[in-house]
Amino acid sequence: MINKRGQLINTKVMGRLLRYAYPHWRSFFLVFGLILLMTITSLAQPRLVQWIIDNHLVNLSPGMEEGAVRQELFQIGIIALTYLGTVLINFGSNYAHFWVLNKTGQTILLNLRQEVYDHVMSLSMSFFDTNPLGNLVTRITNDTENLNEMFTSVLTSLFQNIVSIIGIILIMLTMNFRLGLMVLALTPAILIISFVFRNIIQKVYEEQRRILSKINNHLSENLSGMNVIQMFHQEEKVYQEFDKADRDYLRESQREVKYFATYRPAVELIRSLGIALLLWYGGGGFIRETITFGILYAYIEYIQRFFHPILSLAETYNVIQSALTSSRRIFSLMDEKRTVINQTDPIQVDRLMGKVEFDHVWFAYKGEEWVLKDVSFIIEPGEFVAFVGSTGAGKSSIMHLISRFYDIQRGSIRIDGIDIKNFDEQQLRQAVGVVQQDVFLFGGTVEENITLGREYVSRDDAIQASKLVNAETFIRRLPGGYEAPVMERGATFSAGQRQLLSYARTVAADPSMLILDEATANIDTETELLIQDAIIKMSRNRTTIAVAHRISTIADADKIIVMHHGEIAEEGTKDQLLEQDGIFRVLYELQFDR
Ligand code: M5T
Ligand code: MG
């Protein structure tokens, strides 16, 4: 709870949070004003009743004169009306403060969420490689929601409780100093109980959260991999795991109930103790006529009201802690720097010719674990070059580097003689069309998945592109055609169809260069022919770099580059390589011997 530097709450994070609240200071002032009004009206009520009792009710007696009775009743009526007034004002200010506060809180949150999301989207690929998706989702949704608590409940309940406590203490001490001191003497007991309880329950909550996220992860992972589970008869094992986590959760929930069952009566006990003390001491005072009946009544009321803010303060402390933890996580996300940095003054080119040069390129995703070691090659404009090699050889990595998803550590990559670092990142990615190894389809329609909402890709472009890549026939056959729905991740499409859709998506924007990272999945011969034909048509008039797993893709390549453990092992045309009797020949024969 206390951080490394021994501070109760981290002032730096707190300061940064307040910066988000600052633009709304008017609303907060209004809220504080309303809370003040709420507290004053609420605290005035017992005092008004006491006034009626001590100054008017006591005067009434059975044999009183008619006129005097009417006079007293009139006075009582006025005070009663005032009481009603305090109730109404209290109600109104309570309503208004709640409304203003939540509106402000939600506005702050909206801005914060947008800022976080915007920032996350600007981050480089390497960030997403190392940060699990689930964590990011939690930060953007739950953690920001946690902060809402900070702005709505914490700030104001702190203020409200402190004002109430001070107000009640002042009233009690001024009404009767000794009675007041007596009530105050109970405060340490209640504080200690609350803090001890809060600490314990906090741990229970943490454990609950941990188990719950385990359950959630378990569910999402196993539900999405259900076919693998059923295929390998893992139901029983998976069920056991789930059952265990579920039981753990039940256990923690029961612990929570147990603690609450002790805590609430304990607080009640102290409160009753206070009232008993009050009656005992106050009763004595009443007999000795040092304490009036009205004051006794008012004290009982104030004791009841005194406990609430104290308990609530103890609670606030925990909310602050969890909100601060969330803020720290959000801020560390926002402080994350992008590793691929756009030039301040990028070179503008109309259309790239498509000459690609790798000049002694060294690259590692992390540290010194070299994935590419001193790779150099030149691809001339309009050429069709294929990369082959065993899995993990670094082929996809080369493709990532050409559209600059990562920066290389040594050497340089040039397109049309210009280092790619000098291009505008967006322009570069628009000029280089990439078909990734794993096709990703979004939930939506077929057309949306081809245009991707890019303003420079029209519906017509989408249709032309589909025709070019031979996707038109199967799209037309779908119910709804281009409007046919696509499920999340495109689960209802075959691997070949997904492949064709991703081709259409890529060529729809008419890129000057094409990168194909062929899927390893096996495809039926008919689709393979379609794909083969699509690739030939797509590669016409543009530099095409393809990672090929099927020899059919390579057959007409101008050049084949064979990768081995991050290095170029062989380079040449198909015939030259076959003659060399090296790695390529082995790969080639493996495929044709099947
Ligand atoms: C080459 C490592 C991978 C492999 C090597 C994408 C990626 C890869 N790697 C990382 O450490 N982090 C990453 O994000 O890099 O991987 P590749 O370039 O993907 O290999 P490939 O395309 O030749 O293989 P394949 O199976 O697609 O034919 O050691 O661990
Ligand atoms: Mg690959």
TrEMBL record:
One GO molecular-function entry: ATP hydrolysis activity
Gene3D superfamilies with a match to the protein in the record: ABC transporter type 1, transmembrane domain (1.20.1560.10), P-loop containing nucleotide triphosphate hydrolases (3.40.50.300)
Lipid metabolism listed as a keyword: no
Cellular component terms per the entry's GO annotation: plasma membrane
One Pfam family of this chain: ABC_tran
Transferase listed as a keyword: no
Name of the molecule in the record: ABC transporter ATP-binding protein
Organism, as annotated: Alkalibacter rhizosphaerae
